[in-house]
C-alpha cells in the first residue's frame, strides 16, 4: 500500500460513493438491507465509513444498484482493498479513538475548542503522562506509555516541514489553571504552548473567565476540514465510551458558527500569549 493511503479516509470516501449510488437508485438503506439479508445498521455503518468494507460487500452492493460500468466497480473494489489496510496507529494496538486519528492524519485544518485541558497536539510529554495517569487511574503503566506515544506521534502533523496541519485552538482559561502533574510540568507546558503558538500555521486564543456564559459551555469539540473537495468537514465530539462524528452540512455549519463566536469572545493572539506567559510565571513561584 502506498504510504499516502489513509484507510480511514478511503472508507469514508467509499461510503459516500455507495450512498450516492443508493440514492441514485432511489432505494432506502432498509430496502438494501432486505435485498442483501443484512441489518440496516450494517448498511448505515458502511456508508458512514465507520466499518471496514470488504470487496464482497462492494460487489453485492453494486449488484443491487445495477452498476453496469465495470470500471466503476473495479475502482470501488480497489478503494475497498485500500480501506482494509492499516494506518500507522494500528501498530500501537487497540486505540479507542482510532477513527479520529485517521481523520486528523489526513485533515488540512483543525479547529478545536478545549474547555478543560491543553489540546493533545500541543501537549508536552510530561503533561500528557500526568494527564493520562490522572484521567485513567486504573490504566497500566504500559497502556499509559502507549497512549502517550500515540499522542506524540500525532504531533508530527503540526511539526511537518511540508504541508503541516493548520491548527486553531480556543483554550478556556480553566485549562491554564488546572494543575496537571506539578507546577514545573505546568510551567513547561505553558511555555511550550507559547512557543508553538508562534508558528505561522498555529493559532492559540484564550477564552477568559470574565466572558461568562458562551457557546462552548456544552463541552469540547473539533472541526476537521480536508483538502479534497470530495471529503466533507467533520465535527468530532469525544465521549467516555464512544465518540460522535457529525457530517451533515447543517450540523457542521452550526458548530462552525459557534466557533466564530468563541474566537470573537476570546483574547486576540498577542493578548493570549501574554495571558499564558503570566500564568506560566505563577507556576514558577
Helicity, as a percent range: 40-55%
Would you identify the regions where 5 or more consecutive residues have pLDDT less than 50?
none
Strand count, sense and closure of the main sheet? 6 strands, mixed
Distance between the termini: 53 Å
Q: Could you say which structural class the secondary elements and strand pairing correspond to? A: alpha/beta
Mean pLDDT equals 88
Question: Tally the helices: what do you get?
Answer: 13
Q: Count the strands?
A: 6
Q: Would you give an account of this structure?
A:
The protein is an alpha/beta fold and 285 residues long. Helices cover 53% and strands 11% of the residues. The chain contains 13 helices and six strands. Strands 3-2-1-4-5-6 form a six-stranded mixed β-sheet, with helices on both faces. Helix 2 crosses helix 3 and helix 4 packs antiparallel against helix 5. The protein is elongated. The model has no long low-confidence stretch (mean pLDDT 88).
